[in-house]
Design goal:
The protein has 7 helices and 12 strands. With 386 residues, the chain is α+β, with helices and mostly antiparallel strands. Among the domains are: 125 residues, Immunoglobulin-like (Sandwich), CATH 2.60.40; 125 residues, Alpha-Beta Plaits (2-Layer Sandwich). The strands form 3 sheets. Strands 1-2-8-7-4 form a 5-stranded mixed β-sheet, with no helix packed on it. The structure holds 2-acetamido-2-deoxy-beta-D-glucopyranose (2 copies). One 2-acetamido-2-deoxy-beta-D-glucopyranose binds next to strand 10.
Length: 386
């Protein structure tokens, strides 16, 4: 699959002198297999113009799906620094089959020239046998960019072959540990971010791999003990694999597909133990309602009548009181009352002098003593006695 290069001159973007050229490359990713495309001085030949750029020139890239601001979901982009190559990598899923156009713009960080490249991806199904046996390894000694080029990747597969049953191994997925919740390591020599590498094969796992991924081995890892690696670690010097983080997936036994619920006729099957509730008889609530309403109402009425009788009919009026009083007492009372009233009347119509008891006995200024006036007509009456 030699890349087809079509040169399409485009309007210059930054320098205005035709420095942007669209270059088209056709690639063929496979569903379920890792796809890696390297962006470097070779793939971006003639940057910016028909002059090869020395490899020391820093270049950065920006890639996006045509007509969209970002890459498709399955594709990732990474570049360690402008002096390193960039990588587009990822594993297409069956939904990604078909044609996708990725636009990549390369920026020359020295001259600020840009070049555009178009990657036409025709994603198809892989040929060959299915790879039902899949294993994922966490390689702690590498960053993701260090295993994406084909040389270290094939070296990893070759080394892994010593641990697997003989058979072809294929790279299925490569993910930076940072994308799976890993931490950026301290800037200490030899510390790497780590990378997850998923490998598939048509041949079954070796007992060694099965043992290292067994629950017993995981239990030992949790307790801080070394895992159960029974065979020689053929990956050892180049690739430091975290044997506590090996996961195996066996897809050779097809999982029972979830049965689709079939809509029934909506009637439950006959169940001998099911006894439906008997039909409730119609009930008349009129008497209940009447009793509930009328009894308190009657009681209230009765009490009201009783109260009215006591208040109105059993009232002791004045006439009755007078009749109950003896005649002599009545006369006595009436006499006192009549006299009092008469006196009051007289007092109101006459100029009565101040009562003697309120008069001074002598004049303060002259010292003159006044003899007490004994004038029967002027002696005040004690009027209000009650
Ligand atoms: C590859 O790995 C990434 C990260 O774990 C995951 O999101 C993606 O679904 C994987 N791709 C496939 C096809 O399994
Ligand atoms: C390894 O896997 C375990 C769970 O299986 C997880 O808790 C642990 O963080 C992983 N270690 C690393 C270095 O990713």
């Amino acid at each position: 699959m030699a890349p087809v290069l079509i040169w399409i001159p485009l309007v210059g973007l930054l320098t205005g002198l035709g420095s942007i050229k669209a270059q088209q490359t056709t690639l063929h990713p496979l569903v379920g297999r890792i796809f890696v495309h390297t962006l470097n001085h070779e793939t971006f030949q003639h940057l910016p113009e028909h002059v090869a750029v020395p490899p020391t020139v820093p270049i950065t890239y920006h890639a996006h799906l045509q007509g969209h601001p970002d890459l498709p979901r399955w594709l990732r982009y990474t570049q360690r620094s402008p002096h390193h190559p960039g990588f587009l990598y990822g594993t297409p899923t069956p939904e990604d089959r078909g044609r996708q156009i990725i636009e990549v713009i390369a920026y020359n960080r020295d001259s600020f020239n840009t070049t555009q490249q178009r990657l036409v991806l025709f994603t198809g199904n892989p040929e060959g046998p299915l790879l039902p046996y899949q294993a994922e390894f966490l390689v702690c000694s590498h960053d993701v960019e260090e295993v994406l080029p084909s040389a270290p990747a094939s070296r990893f597969l070759t080394a892994l072959r010593g641990l697997w049953e003989p058979g072809e191994l294929q790279l299925l997925n490569i993910t930076s540990a940072l994308d799976r919740g890993g931490r950026v390591p301290l800037p200490i020599e030899g510390r790497k971010e780590g990378v997850y590498i998923k490998v598939g094969s048509a041949s079954p796992f070796s007992t060694c791999l099965k043992m290292v991924a067994s629950p017993d081995s995981h239990a030992r890892c949790v307790q801080g003990q070394p895992p159960l690696l029974s065979c020689y670690d053929t990956l050892a010097p180049h690739f430091r694999v975290d044997w506590c983080n090996v996961s195996l997936v066996d897809k050779s036994v097809p999982e029972p597909a979830d049965e689709l619920p079939t809509p029934g006729d909506g009637i439950l099957e006959h169940d001998p133990f099911f006894c439906p509730p008997t039909e409730a008889a119609a009930r008349d609530f009129l008497t209940d309602a009447l009793v509930t309403l009328l009894v308190p109402l009657l009681l209230a009425l009765l009490l009201a009548l009783l109260l009215a009788y006591i208040m109105c009919c059993r009232r002791e009026g004045r006439l009755k009181r007078d009749l109950a009083t003896s005649d002599i007492q009545m006369v006595h009372h009436c006499t006192i009352r009549g006299n009092t009233q008469e006196l009051r009347h007289m007092a109101a119509s006459r100029q009565v002098p101040r009562p003697l008891s309120t008069l001074p006995m002598f004049n303060v200024r002259t010292g003159e003593r006044l003899p007490p006036q004994v004038d029967g007509a002027q002696v005040p009456l004690i009027l209000d006695q009650h």
